[in-house]
Amino acid sequence: MSWGSWSEFWAMGGYAFYVWGAYGVTAAAIAVEVWALARRTRRSRETAS
Amino acid sequence: MSTAIKWFWFASPQTFFPLAGRVAVVCAIGAALLGAAGLYVGFFVAPTDAQQGDAYRIIFIHVAAAWMSMFLYVVMAFWAAIGLAFNTRLSAMMASAIAPTGAMFTFVALWTGALWGRPAWGAYWVWDARLTSELILLFLYLGFMALQAAIDDQRRADRAGALLAIVGVVNVPIIYYSVQWWNTLHQGASVSLTRAPSMATAMLWGMLLMALAFWLYSIAAALARVRCIIRERE
User: Cys-Cys link to B45, which of B17, B41, B137, B203 (CB 3.0-4.6 A)?
Assistant: First the structure.
């Protein structure tokens, strides 16, 4: 374990912008795809029935 | 012809449809669990890197996303080629279902690479072989999707997309070997089949767990999307 506290964890040794920028946008990209898939599934169900 | 199709039981969209739904759910759950485990190992077990500090922790999503971006393209081109050669409906649908997920991972690989490049090299972007060929991969995915969307006749759209996908496959070995073929800022492979990995065990585990999570996520997303496509087309 390399962190003494949560604030140290969020600071990422001074690289917070890069690390959280990378992880945040990745999470957002996956979230957008899941949302788009859910919407497409709903719409295809509506038109198929 | 209709009896020949029955030989390939799951090649028929109707029989494949319920199976795809079940596999997608299992893979989605597996992806969530492995992703949580990978993030835990990546942030709480893996030590701070002696040279790069904590900036290196981007590796856990960067490498996994880059692997998926190339792998998914090969799988997409494979299904596109099968669809083109044997005129099987489901193969073309699989190719179309994989493209958006592949494009998403290519974008993630480029984005996380840029945010890692700045602290590691001092630049978000350089026009070197690895980065440029990965950018071309993103354009190939987007081109495939745009081409298919632009053609109204579904069979023609599948054929045109398949040709683009197959021709574009030449880019994948270029990405993979770019770090050996050209002088580049990008480092070589940290993990290879031919030698021991050049990284700490915990780092390696974090990366492999994230790669497996992305793998399962890709299967789940592609199968969920192919179910939409089957509903829309059949």
Answer: B41
**Residue A37: inside a domain:** yes
* The residue count for chain B: 234
Q: How many domains in chain A?
A: 1
The distance of B231 to chain A (nearest Cα, Å) reads: 6
pLDDT on residue B1: 43
Answer whether A25 sits within 8 Å of B111, measured CB to CB. Answer: yes
Is the minimum CB–CB distance between B152 and chain A shorter than 8 Å? no
Specify if A3 maps to a domain: no
Q: What is the pTM of this model?
A: 0.91
Does residue A4 lie in a domain region?
no
pLDDT digits (tens, 9 = 90+) for B162-201: 999 999 999 999 999 888 888 777 877 766 656 666 677 8
Mutate to test the interface with A, among B41, B44, B58, B210 (most CBs of A within 10 A): B58
> Two tokens at A29?
């990209």
